[in-house]
Amino acid sequence: MTNPLRELNKLGQSVWYDNLNRELLANGRLRKMVEEDGVSGGTSNPSIFEKAIASGDVYDDHIRELVARDAGIPAIFDALTVADVQQSADVFRPAYDATKGADGYASLEVPPDLAYDTQATIDNALRLFKALDRPNVMIKIPGTQEGLPAVEQCLSEGLNINITLLFSVDVYEQVARTYISALEKRAQRGEPVSGIASVASFFVSRVDSLTDDKLKAKIEASGSDVEKAHLHSLTGKAAVANAKIAYEKYRQIFSGPRWDALAAKGARVQRCLWASTSTKNPDFRDVIYVEELIGPDTVNTLPQNTLDAFRDHGRAALTLDQGVADAHDVIRRIESAGISFKAVTDELQTQGVKLFCDSFDKAVESIVGKREVLRGAGARA
To answer: Residues 297, 321: contact at Cβ < 8 Å?
Structure first.
C-alpha cells in the first residue's frame, strides 16, 4: 500500500518529527521512520526534553558520567541536549546529502528565558551551533521582537536558523524579510549564501484553541440564534486560514527582483514549517492540520500520534493554495465579531515563551533530582 507520508514528499512537503529524544535514538525508531516514512528532519524544544528526561532512565548513564566529572547543571543540560541533536542530525545526514543541504536538519533551541534578550540569544546561538558541530543542524530562536535582530545577526554569520513560536502573519513577514536582509549582508561582504538554511516555524493548532475559546464566550453571551450560528460557523477555521495567508505572503516575498538576485547566487528559500499540528479538539479530523496545509517548499513537523494517523488514513493533495480568498474572509469575519486577531496571536506568543520557560525549569529540576539520586548511589557503592 502507498504510504501517505511518502506522498507528501512527492508534493514538495518534508515530514519532520516533532519529538526528538534519546529513547527514540536508542531503540532505532527514528531511523525506522526515516527509512519507512520518509521523515527527513526533526525538532526539539524544552517541553519535549522535559518530558523525555522525566519519563525514564535513558539519560541516566550520561548524567552519571557527567556527575563523575563534577559537571554543573547548565553543563549537564547542554551535554544531554547537544548529544540528542547531534545523534539525530547523524540519522538525518543522508537526507541532507541527497538534497544537497535543502533538507535533513535537526533543531536545538536556545534557552527560552533569553527570548527577550537579543545579545544573550546571539551568544548562546553561536555557542550551541559550534558545540553541535554538524552542517545539518539549526538553532531555534523565538520570533519575538528582541529575537528578530538575533536571527538576522546569526544568519548573517552563517548559522542555520529555525525561527520558532510564530503565530502572526505580520511577524512572519518580518521574519522572512529578515532572512533576505541577512543574506544580502553576506552577499555584500562577498560571503556565500548558498550554504545557509532556515525555516519559519508557524504554530497552527494553538490558534484555533484560543480563537475558539473566544468565539465560545461570544456564543454563550449572545441572545441571537442567527448570531450564534454565524459565530459557530467560524470555529475551527482560524488556524488553517492564518497559515494559508502566511504561505501566500511567502510566495510573494520569495519572488521578484530582490529575491531573484539572491537565488542567482545559490540562496535557498526560507521554508514555512507548520508546527503544533496535532489536533487538540476531538471534534475535528485528527489530521486536519496536515491535510489542509500541503504545498511545495514547506515542512510539517508531526508528533507521533499525528504521524501515525496520517500514515493510516491521511489524504495527500495540494491544498495550501486553495481557498486563500476564503481564508482572508474568515479572519475578517472573526475581527468583525469583535475578536482582535492581533491580540490572539500576541497572547499566543507570550504564552508560548512562558510554556517553554516553564518546561525548561522543570527539565532543570529533573536533572537536579537525577543528579542527586545518582550521586547518592555512587556514594553507597
So the answer is: no
> Domains of the chain: which residue ranges?
4-380
The answer to whether the beta carbons of residues 293 and 242 sit under 8 Å apart is: no
Spatial distance between the Cα atoms of 168 and 340, rounded to a whole number of angstroms: 12
Whether residue 244 lies in the annotated active site: no
Q: Of 10, 51, 140, 214, which one is the catalytic site residue?
A: 140
pLDDT tens digits along 116-169: 999 999 999 999 999 999 999 999 999 999 999 999 999 999 999 999 999 999
Give the three-class secondary structure for 370: helix
Q: What's the residue count for the chain? A: 381
User: Nearest Cα to 115, choosing from 74, 155, 145, 85?
Assistant: 145
Q: What are phi and psi of 44, to 5 degrees?
A: -130, 155
Q: How far, in Å, CA of 140 to CA of 318, rounded? A: 28
Check: CB of residue 186 under 8 Å from CB of residue 156: yes
Pick the CATH number of 4-380 from 2.160.10.10, 3.40.50.620, 3.20.20.70, 3.40.50.970: 3.20.20.70
Structural Rg of the chain based on CA atoms: 21
136, 139, 273 from 42: Cα distances, Å: 11, 12, 11
DSSP 360: H
Question: Are the CB atoms for 106 and 42 separated by under 8 Å?
Answer: yes
Maximum CA pair distance of the chain?
73
> Do the beta carbons of residue 166 and residue 195 sit within 8 Å?
no
User: Nearest 10 degrees: CA dihedral of 70, 72, 77, 78?
Assistant: -90
**Amino acid found at 260:** D
- Between 379 and 313, the more confident residue is 313
